[in-house]
Amino acid sequence: MKHHILIIPILFLGLLFVILTSGCTSNTNSSAVTIMPTITPQTGANPASTLATTNQMSNAVSTSTETPYLTYTNPTYQLTMTYPADWQVQEVDPVNCWALRDYGSTTCNVVNFFSPTTEFGNYRTFSIDVDFPTTLTIEDYFNKDSGALETFYPGLQVVKTFFQQKVSNNKAYELFFRKGDENNAPPAIEVVTITENNVPYIISYNALEDQDFDNMLKSIQIATASSATKQR
Q1: pLDDT at 222 over 50
Q2: Percentage of the chain with pLDDT > 90?
Q3: What rounded mean pLDDT belongs to the chain?
Q4: Which residue of 111, 127, 177, 206 lies most exposed, with the fewest beta carbons within 10 A?
Q5: Which domain holds residue 32?
Q6: By the 8 A CB rule, do 170 and 222 touch?
Q7: Backbone angles phi, psi at 115, to 5 degrees
Q8: What is the reported pLDDT for 169?
């Protein structure tokens, strides 16, 4: 009987040791689990903060690199418009501005804007001409000029036309074409409008449509054509 009494305490002590050991392991794991949630949100917050900062920097760079625009005014033709500040302006003497143009009309070349040259020596030209007052409708005037262009540039390719264009709140027609029958023929754009005083304005661009062209075209304001008529 004495032997049995000694075995029971030994077994009891062994069982108690296992329970205590198990309890310590459980506490260690519990401590690890409670630490992880506090680390995870902080780690996840950093990329979002970095992304916001990157976007702000990107917007700042984009805004700072945009070319500012200057205002051009011609009192003779009461013409006002904006153009990129890094473009050159060539204002033509009203007395010597008359010349036969490729659209078949002898018009006054009022002003020309030249973009900076590229590494290939090319540049874009935005030109405005003024014609004598006409009795033609805008449709007939545009068709006449389009026909003259086809004669001047054999094989001319019409890329597209716009009939719902506006220039200084006047109805305008736009012709986008290539000066030849080849795919690499030089592109050009011609926009025709007629003011309330029946004076045609012709805008020419020797390049593909781009943001500079759109901005300059939309900025054109023609107060009146009365001064232009008196100059003739």
Answers
A1: yes
A2: 56
A3: 76
A4: 206
A5: 1-66
A6: yes
A7: -75, 165
A8: 94
Measure CA of the first residue to CA of the last residue in the chain; give whole Å: 140
Alpha-carbon torsion, ordered 175, 177, 102, 118, to 10 deg: 110
Q: How far apart are the C-alpha atoms of 189 and 172, rounded to whole Å?
A: 13
Per the structure block, which two tokens stand in for 45? 């917050």
CB 229 within 8 A of CB 142: no
User: What pTM did the predictor assign?
Assistant: 0.68
For tokens 């020797």, what's the residue? 206
Q: Which residue has the higher pLDDT, 25 or 170?
A: 170
Amino acid in position 116: P
Q: What share of the chain is helix, strand, coil (3-state, %, to 5)?
A: 40, 30, 30
Taking the C-alpha atoms of residue 207 and residue 189, their distance in angstroms, rounded to an integer, is: 7
Q: Strands 98-100 and 200-205, how do they pair?
A: unpaired
| C-alpha–C-alpha distance, residues 66 and 60, integer Å | 10
CA-to-CA separations, 142 to 11, 100, 105, 148, in angstroms, rounded: 111, 17, 12, 10
Same domain, 53 and 83: no
Last residue of a domain, one of 66, 92, 122: 66
Q: How many CA atoms lie within 13 A of 39 on its CB side?
A: 5
CA distance 19 to 120: 85
Q: How far is CA 196 from the centre of its chain?
A: 31
Q: How many domains does the chain have?
A: 2
